[in-house]
Write a structure and sequence with these properties.
Blueprint: H1 2-14, E1 24-28, H2 34-44, E2 52-58, E3 63-69, H3 72-75, H4 79-84, E4 89-95, E5 110-114, E6 117-127, H5 130-139, H6 150-159, H7 165-175, E7 178-186, E8 190-194, E9 203-207, E10 210-214, H8 218-221, E11 226-230, E12 236-240, E13 243-247, H9 259-265, E14 271-272, E15 275-276, H10 277-290, E16 298-301, H11 307-317, E17 320-321, E18 325-327, H12 340-350, E19 351-353, H13 355-358, E20 362-367, H14 374-385, E21 390-395, H15 417-420, H16 423-430, E22 434-437, H17 440-447, H18 462-465, H19 480-492
Parallel strand pairs: 16-17, 16-20, 20-21, 21-22
Antiparallel strand pairs: 1-4, 1-10, 2-3, 2-4, 5-6, 6-7, 7-8, 8-12, 9-10, 9-11, 12-13, 14-15, 18-19
The protein binds adenosine monophosphate.
The site of adenosine monophosphate has 18 residues, from α14.
Length: 493
């Protein structure tokens, strides 16, 4: 019996239907080289997911689809592949997942035939009620092909009794909850959707007569498209030929984008709320410097995640910024490794101490965030082994105490270091001389409004506060049963 439970638990981990995906999405209308432009856009969004990528196009008669494991540049680099993706309309997706099935069937965009015609869907984010919805759909006879929550959206669209595709989409969107940005390709339009709080990002660009939708503005820059605006929270944009129509079906809510886009995800050159992520991160470093009470010889970033914050920190204090750690750029993010053991190895694979700059130095080491503590633990040791006199760790965001349910890969509360240990205990664990996190107020001062502003909190900041704008209803006990039934359907495929 015990053995069976062990196997079941292992399988549950492997087939966890709540795959946490960060992902990058892209869509373009009315463009001659739609598939090539989509490949370029996805390439610019590669930092959002490296596990798999896919493009779906429509040529006025037929849909075309290519999905591959790995990087965009390794898969969509041949004319033959791109020429097979015919049509002037395209959507694309970069996939990131840490746990869950790594199979081709989970790579997006997904495609479905409905009674109003075909539809392709690419999704960034996580639904908080997908298990409950999936349970109902399965009870009603739906057959699921993947273990991704995105398929729930596709099934809801297909099942809608409305006549027009856009109405079917609205119907489906009303039923889902969580953090999501979607791009969809119908037979007559490109559609973009952003969740009611605008937790996950989506921007609109223009390239001649084409509209472009993308997770970040860096994907507009690469193809020379002009940034028009963000898709509003709760907005659906319907793009037909060179016309864009805005539909706002939800009761208006206050926009609360995910704070982690500012801290970590977005590429530094992408624009978030009128400033680049780089400027926001330098400001986070500046606020951290204002709160700092330790002196040091040099300021060292954890590359690349701590670069901008460390620069802001060093510039504010007039201290020397040094590259005390050198990064091997040919290794993916350490987080991508599925097990804790491999993950700790990953830090060593990725970074090495730059001995000449750190020997006998009192160092302030800066990173954007501390999650499980794996990175800091390894790096502090690396710096001491290379002869550092003192290593003081400063983190450019507050303590992460609460997990995420909207598409960011954070572990469970049990694995979040700051949820379980005091500052001294964490400092002890990572082996630093001192440890300091940026205060919540400092973070808000850096990114925008502080507590006195009527819009406070203008960000989805549950990582630090436990304030979840959308309650994660799938966490309720009842749904565990559904996970088990999903497990058997998934493993039978
Ligand atoms: P940890 O080593 O577990 O403390 O994680 C912190 C490191 O992972 C930092 O260097 C961050 O830049 C990076 N990081 C933080 N959040 C994420 C995430 N959701 N996905 C990938 N990497 C992350």
């Amino acid at each position: 019996m015990k053995k069976h439970i062990k196997i079941l638990k292992k399988k549950l981990r492997t087939f966890d239907p709540k795959i946490k995906e960060e992902c990058g999405i892209f869509g373009i209308s009315n463009a001659k080289d739609a598939s090539a432009l989509t490949a370029l856009g996805l390439h610019a969004l590669q930092h959002r997911g490296q596990e798999g990528c896919g493009i779906v196009t429509f040529d006025g008669k037929q849909y075309f689809s290519e999905k591959r494991f790995g990087l965009v540049g390794d898969n969509f680099n041949k004319e033959k592949v791109l020429n097979n993706l015919k049509g002037d309309y395209a959507i694309g997706h970069n996939r990131y997942s840490t746990t869950g099935e790594n199979t081709l069937r989970n790579i997006q965009p997904f495609f479905a035939d409905t009674n109003a015609g075909g539809i392709g869907v690419a999704h960034n984010g996580n639904l908080t009620n997908s298990i409950s919805l999936r349970k109902k759909l399965v009870e009603d006879g739906a057959i699921f092909y993947t273990t991704s929550d995105t398929e729930t959206i596709v099934q809801l669209i297909a099942k809608s009794k409305r006549v027009k595709t856009i109405d079917k989409v609205v119907d489906a969107i009303f039923q889902i909850q969580g953090g999501y940005a979607l791009v969809m390709l119908t037979q007559t339009s490109l559609i973009g959707v952003r969740d009611p709080f605008g937790i996950r990002p989506l921007v609109i660009g223009k390239l001649k007569n084409s509209y472009v939708l993308a997770s970040e503005t860096c994907a507009l820059d690469i193809i020379g498209a002009k940034f028009i605006r963000e898709v509003d929270n709760g907005e659906i944009v319907l793009i037909e030929n060179d016309k864009l129509q805005s539909i706002k079906p939800f009761p208006q809510k206050k926009v609360r984008p995910c704070v982690f886009e500012y801290i970590y995800f977005a590429r530094p050159d992408s624009i978030l709320d009128n400033k680049t992520a780089y400027e926001h991160r330098k400001n986070l470093g500046l606020e951290l410097a204002k709160e700092s009470d330790v002196d040091a010889d040099i300021i060292v970033p954890v590359p690349d995640s701590g670069n901008a914050a460390a620069l802001g920190f060093a510039q504010y204090l007039g201290k020397n910024f040094e590259l005390g750690l050198i990064r091997n750029h040919y290794v993916g993010r350490t987080f991508i490794e599925p097990s804790q053991k491999i993950r700790s190895l990953g830090v060593k694979l990725k970074l090495n101490a730059n001995k000449s700059t750190i020997k006998n130095k009192k160092i302030i080491l800066i990173d954007d965030s501390l999650v499980r503590g794996t990175t800091s633990h390894k790096i502090v040791k690396m710096l001491y082994d290379a002869g550092a006199k003192e290593v003081h760790v400063k983190i450019a965001c507050p303590e992460i105490k609460y997990p995420d349910f909207y598409g960011v890969d954070t572990p469970t509360k049990k694995e979040l270091l700051a949820a379980n240990k005091t500052n001294d205990e964490i400092c002890n664990y990572i082996g630093a001389k001192s440890l300091k996190f940026l205060s919540l107020n400092g973070m808000y001062r850096a990114i925008g409004f502080d507590k006195r502003n009527e819009n406070y909190p203008q960000l989805t900041d549950h990582y630090f506060t436990g304030d979840y704008p959308v309650k994660p209803i799938d966490e309720l006990g009842d749904n565990k049963v559904t996970q088990l039934s999903l497990l058997s359907s998934a493993s039978n495929n």
